[in-house]
Design goal:
Length: 518
């Protein structure tokens, strides 16, 4: 596969702090933008456009006009718009040959275009045209390795007017979309809907005059950081046709749009740019000369001369599996802000791969509870310091079956320093344990606390016993019979790691529960 490359140097005065692509370069600094044609594994001699990716770019979907049916092939002209998928091969560092999605997504006789892929790659938004000339937004979900039959999104997202492009917010509970409906500011405007507590979508709300104009907006995309929005507009000082712009959410208000500058904007139409979670690379459609076809998809790489932290974002990913057999599991993950107790997001692993992926704002202590049928819940703690920029965390999570003798570490139980009092960040974890005991009404468990080797044996034994008792006392307060609970402090007698390092001592300071009978 031949990779065609184009190089550009963009000065900071053009980028104007293009977060998260750039973080406030000084006047003398520059960033090199490299456009690399993805080659014939993705592109064809026909029009290939509108790339969408999951958060780490391991899955790329795009729309192509390449002919497929015998009638199209015979005519040797552009076919209908159809959606293709290409997966990134880590060994070759390139995308494998793109494949056509089935009729569950590509409805026969219709133009079908990929317009958004969720961060975890499990949900796809599709544009599909209608007999009356309007277009609507449809959604398909990945179940195992197969996509479900696409369903039209309900009102108020779709209307009797034209809806063209859309994107998900990182939490999956907000959809931003472009609509030509009445009540807007111009022709095509940016709108959004939020999912209500019962699952229905709330009213469509116009994004207002900061982003929308009396002209048209198009190609909406919200970065996984949740605060940087990219879109195209014919206004905002466009160089001609649609130009690419970005806006940043600051203190609950979207900033005035700034132009992406060259090479992204030209005198023609410039629409559709997506970036991965790191903001170091993205994907873009261009009709520049020297490509594979009329319109090709390019990899956009940002080579900065100044080291930057990138967006303040944690990309958490991994797989859930049976600890003994290694079999991957379909599991539900609940992500909690341990400081506030708020449930940030509920996600599920893919049933065929056991994999999950989620983008989370950085600088927060997260608790993650994993549940799978027939297994004890497992808890994971991800605590990113305030100073962290972009961080990728790989967490493969083993699950243990509900069996006598099974022990689980409660990673989200926290105590005040050198005390037995439970901190409020522990409440979500304790409530999960309460729910488990109520669901298994005959289960009897031992709650144990462990310390590192600092301090005397006598002191550590006493502190660990008090901490274990604190957990038992909370469970009793929540209605669990005391006969089902045993508190045991083991002090430093059962280390699981070395006490010679900070990391090892942290692992040794833990709270566990063990099933005594069920």
């Amino acid at each position: 596969m031949i990779m065609k490359r184009r190089y550009f140097v963009i000065w900071s005065c053009m980028l104007l702090c293009m977060a998260p692509i750039a973080n406030c370069f000084s006047q003398n600094d520059s960033v090199e933008v490299v456009l690399t044609n993805l080659g014939s594994s993705v592109n064809s001699k026909w029009k290939d456009f509108c790339p969408v990716i999951n958060a780490d770019g391991s899955v790329l979907m795009f729309t192509s006009r390449r002919p497929v049916t015998s009638k199209e092939l015979k005519a040797k002209e552009d076919g209908l718009e159809r959606i293709y998928v290409a997966k990134f091969n880590q060994a070759t560092k390139s995308y494998e040959n793109a494949t056509l999605l089935g009729e569950e997504v590509n409805a026969p006789g219709r133009n079908n275009s990929a317009i958004a892929l969720s961060n975890d790659g499990q949900s796809l938004l599709v544009y599909r045209d209608e007999d009356d000339g309007n277009g609507e937004i449809w959604e398909s979900r990945l179940k195992g390795d197969a996509w479900t039959i696409a369903r039209k999104l309900p009102a108020p997202i779709n209307s009797k007017f034209h809806e063209s492009t859309a994107c998900y917010a990182p939490d999956g509970n907000t959809i931003y979309f472009i609509s030509q409906r009445e009540g807007g500011i111009g022709g095509r405007d940016i709108w959004y809907c939020k999912r209500q507590s019962g699952g229905a979508w709330g009213e469509a709300i116009n994004m207002g005059k900061t982003l929308n104009t009396s002209d048209d907006e198009e190609g909406i995309y919200l970065h996984p950081d949740g605060v940087t929005m990219y879109f195209s507009s014919k206004a905002h000082g466009s160089m001609g046709g649609y130009d690419l712009f970005f806006s940043k959410l600051e203190n609950g208000i979207w900033s005035a749009p700034k132009s992406m500058g060259a090479p992204f904007n030209s005198s023609g139409h410039d629409v559709f740019l997506v970036l991965d979670a790191s903001a170091n690379k993205g994907y873009y459609t261009s009709a520049m000369k020297g490509g594979v076809g009329d319109e090709d998809i390019y990899l956009v790489s940002f080579n900065r001369k100044v080291k930057e932290a990138g967006p303040r974002l944690t990309l958490l990913k991994g797989k859930v599996y049976d600890e003994k057999s290694g079999q991957v599991l379909e599991a539900a993950l609940e992500i909690i802000n341990n400081t506030t107790g708020e449930v940030v997001k509920n996600i599920a692993t893919n049933s065929a791969t056991g994999r999950y992926m989620v983008s989370l704002p950085g600088g927060i202590n997260y608790g993650i509870s994993v549940n799978a049928k027939g297994y004890l819940f497992n808890s994971v703690n991800v605590n990113m310091p305030d100073s962290a920029g972009y961080v990728e965390v790989e967490k493969d999570i083993p699950m243990k079956r509900i069996e006598v003798g099974t022990t689980i570490v409660l990673n989200n139980i926290f105590y005040d320093f050198d005390k037995a009092s439970l901190r409020k960040e522990s409440i979500s974890e304790l409530d999960r344990l309460t729910a488990l005991l109520k669901e298994n009404a005959s289960m009897r468990i031992e709650l144990s606390s462990h310390t590192d080797s600092k301090g005397t044996d006598e002191y550590n034994d006493k502190l660990s016993q008090m901490r274990a008792q604190s957990v038992v006392d909370y469970l009793k307060y929540r209605g669990i019979n005391a006969d089902r609970l045993v508190a045991k402090g083991y002090g430093e007698s059962k280390p699981v790691a070395t006490n010679e390092t900070d990391e090892g001592r942290q692992l040794n300071r833990r709270t566990e529960f063990k099933i005594l009978s069920k």
